[in-house]
Each structure stands twice: as structure tokens, then as C-alpha cells.
Amino acid sequence: MNQLKFKLLKSTCLGLTCLLAVVAKGEAASAPRPPNIVIIYCDDIGFGDLSCYGATKINTPNLDQLAAEGQRFVNAHATASTCTPSRYSLLTGEYSFRNQGAHILNGDAPLLIPPGTPTLPALLQKGGYTTGVVGKWHLGLGAGNTDWNGEVKPGPLEIGFDYSFIIPTTPDRVPCVYVENHRVAGLDPTDPIEISYQHPVGTDPTGTDHPELIRYTADKQHSGTIVDRISRIGWMKGGQAARWKDEDMAATLLRKAQQFLEQNQAKPFFLYYAVHDVHVPRAPNDRFLGKSQCGIRGDMVLELDWCVGEFMAALRRLNLADNTLVVFSCDNGPLFEDGYNDGSLKAANGATPAGPFRGGKYRIYEGGTRLPFITWWPVQIKPGVSDALISHVDLLASLASLAEINVPNNAGTDSENLLPTLLGRSPVGRQNLIEQSEKGLAIVQADWKYIPAGNVVRWGAASRPGNTAGPADWAEAQLFNLAQDKGETNNLAAKYPEKMQGLAELLEKIRTPKEKQP
Ligand SMILES: [Ca+2]
Which helix (H) or strand (E) holds 270? Predict the structure, then answer.
């Protein structure tokens, strides 16, 4: 931490004593270490899934404590309503629509982020941080035709991470094994892995052929090779000893995240802890099964909360709490069932995972990208609630600023430095925001949101009650005033054509690469 950063913290600190407390925890007062940074990023959790965000059917005490001790944001967004694009933006500081390949990837997709890209972990690594990723990756691995029995690369280690322990894609896609650094963890070389997304491989039963062997039925896409009594997307043979147990996934990832803290506590570190809950297939550990009032999906919310509690306990046990910023959020909004007939919709019990917002995962409406977002660092962040407009794309510039690292011109194209806002010292957020769904883009500026005609997906309406969209939504441009109409039900396009035109022009300007702008 140099003089400049010292001044920033001093000027924005709630009191000099808190800064001195941070310094005192460092190795020497003359060279205080920059703070550790942890991003806990969960999967398919909505704005209304946590009790600190208004959930009444599910109790999340550990996340509630995080929120009560930190800043709870109510207008923070992932860049997209699906996984791969959001995670791409989180790590690169670039809107995912700028990369044509940033769509939901299969397990045989090559690495989406080119090695050498100045990503968030790469910048922090260059600034002296030890960097790690534990959990769901879903940004591609290898250069094409990956051999899962050899060195699996390029991957996280080639774009800025010193350590990785990852689910390669999603828990519902093959290969159903963890990859630790460059190798499949626990692989028996005499039982090599082969996967395909084009045709069956091996002789393992599939969901299509052997529905009697699976715990719940699935759609055609999710009816490939059966692993742990769940049929997956794609086909897989071999790697029996390395295959994961879905019920143990949360504890396995948690332990690896805790080990990263234990092994790297002596120096500044950055950990991207990508919890798999509550993505499908839903197979919570027995200790959570049936414990919520909202079926198996609710049980996984409890599992997520437990993971956060256990992780934070480790952080405190290692005396790292005073010098660690924790950011909690999620990659995209919620839905009940997603390819598996796991009973989540029927068991919903009136829960509203997207809170007051319309839509959810895959959608352009607010439920798709407006998500829980909490920053926690008790000695530096005063508890509070912020309605500042924030995107996960801003974490690159903001966290680089915290770590006192310059962001080169070719990094974080769309990332804004909102560090004072993240630390609860400024109410100011972004001026505008782009949201992305599986179908297209929308733009938010202040209270207004514009969705160009044709950007509303037509399928899957039943996955969330109230998520229906009709022909008018599909065909017409939409303009909403989010301050007055959180649920995006009153289309004001005909009433305010100039407002809509202005937003359309702004969207076009932002989506045009800077080098092509007039
Ligand atoms: Ca997701």
C-alpha cells in the first residue's frame, strides 16, 4: 500500500483508528500489506432468495450476518442472465456481448478468455497477490479437443490464477470430475476419460435408456450419461474413481477454499470462490435435504448459507477478517426447474426467488441480472444499504484500485472504479448499465429501462410462476420506469417516445466498440 492508497483510505476511512487497526495487523507499519480479496460467487440465486433480501420461507442467517455487518446493495447486477457471460465479465471487466463466444459453454469448449488477457486475477497476481479459484468455472478449458487424461490447459492458470480447483463446466454437464490445476483430480490413468457432446461414448447407462436408474427424470438434453444417479448433458466414459458425488460437492469445494486461506494467509491473496449452489442438478447433502419449506431448491439455499458461514468462520479463525474484503454475489437470476423434474416448482410454497422483479435466469427483465450483492470488511465498511447502480463488470477496476494496481488501457474496457461505493463511502453508482439475456440487450439509465423489440425469450415461461411473456412482449419495444414499476408490467414506450429514442441511441453508442465510434 503506497502513499496514494494510504491517503485514499485515510480520507475515506470512518476514523483513523480503523486504518491503524489494519496497519497493525500487517507485517510492519512502514509497509502495510494490501487487503486480501475474496469473491464468493454463487449460482442461479435470485434477489429474493435470501432472508436479508426479503425471503420469508427460507432463513439464511450466515448471509444475513454478512449483510448486517457490511453494505447490502439493492441495485447491483451481473452483466447477463446466464452463467458464462456473467463470469466472463466478472473476470475481464468487459461486457460479454463484446465477445461473440461468450454464450453458455459445453464441457468440450476451449478456453474463452485468451491466455495473457489482463484479467482481474492477472492484474492482482502482477501486483503481488496469490490468486486462486475454487468452484464452478464454465469459461472453457483447453485449446480444443482437450485430452482430459493429460494436462488440461490452457485454463485458469493461464489467465492469472496461481491455483485452481474447479468444476470444469456446470454440474449438469460432463465431465463430472474436478480439475485441480492442470490435472483431473483423482484420475486413475488405467481408466481414461472420454467425453462427447455429439454422440454417445462408452457403455455407461444414459437417462434415455435407463430412467429406472436416475433419481429424477430430465429433458432430452439432460438425459445423457448417468453419474451418481443423475443423467447429464453429454456422454462420458471412464474416470470412475475421479467422478464427483453431488451430495459432497458443497463440502468438497468449501474445504478447498478453506485450505487456500490456510495455505496463503501469510501474503495478500485473492480467492474466487464459486459455489455451485443452487444450480441443477439439485442434490443437497443429507443434512439439508428436506430442511427448508421450499423443496430441494430451498434446501440448496440452506446449503449455500452453510458454505458461507463455514467459510467466514475459517476467515475469522485465521485472524484474516480485519484485512479481507469479501464480496458476495451471484452469476444470474433464479428459476425453479432447469432441465430436471426435481419438484422445485411444485414445492415452491409461494417463494419468490426473484423478489419483486420480473423474470429470472435467461431473461431480459430485472430478475435475470439484479441480484444479491454484499460487501463485507468490518474495519473499513460501515453497515448500510445502498441503491447505487453497480455491475459486476466494475469489480476489476474497483478491486485493482483497492490493491493499488494500475489498470492498463487494454484491460477492463467497461469497468468503472466504484471502490468508494463498494466500501459504503459514496452513494454514486454507474450512470448506465447494459443487461444481456439469451436473446439480446437492454439498457438502464437512472430510473429508466429500454428493451429493444425482439429481445425477450419466448421459451420456458413455466419455470417461474409469473414469468409469462406474450406476443406483445416478444414483438414490441419496451420502456419501463423501474422506480415506479419494479415488476416491469407497464410499458411506457408509446407514452415517452423521445425517452426511448434517447436510450436506443445510447445503447447503440455503448455497444459500438470505441475504435469504431465516430
Ligand atoms: Ca448460473
Answer: strand 269-274
* 84 Cα: distance to centroid of ligand 1 (angstroms): 8
User: How does pLDDT run across 369-416, given as a tens digit for each residue?
Assistant: 999 999 999 999 999 999 999 999 999 999 999 999 999 999 999 999
pLDDT in tens, 457-475: 776 655 555 566 777 787 8
Q: How far is the CA of 208 from the centre of ligand 1 (A)?
A: 25
**Secondary structure of 414-472 as H, E, C letters:** CCCCCHHHHCCCCCCCCCEEEEECCCCEEEEECCEEEECCCCCCCCCHHHCCCCCCCHH
* Ligand 1 centroid from CA 194, angstroms: 25
Of 1.20.58.2050, 3.40.720.10, 3.30.450.40, 3.20.20.150, which CATH number belongs to 37-184+247-430?
Answer: 3.40.720.10
pLDDT at 24: 41
CA of 439 to the centre of ligand 1 (A): 16
Domain 433-516 has CATH 2.120.10.30: no
Residue 89 CA, ligand 1 centroid: distance in Å: 13
**How many whole angstroms from 332 Cα to the centroid of ligand 1?**
5
- pLDDT higher than threshold 80 for residue 432: yes
Residue 318 scores a pLDDT above 70: yes
Kindly give the distance from the C-alpha atom of residue 9 to the centroid of ligand 1, in angstroms, as a whole number.
Answer: 34
Mean pLDDT over residues 6-10, rounded?
A: 40
Mean of all residue pLDDT scores within the chain: 92
Domain ranges of the chain: 1-33, 37-184+247-430, 194-237, 433-516
Q: How far is CA 311 from CA 124, 287, 331, 367, in A?
A: 22, 17, 19, 27
Ligand 1 center to residue 278 CA distance, Å?
Answer: 8
Q: How far is the CA of 282 from the centre of ligand 1 (A)?
A: 13
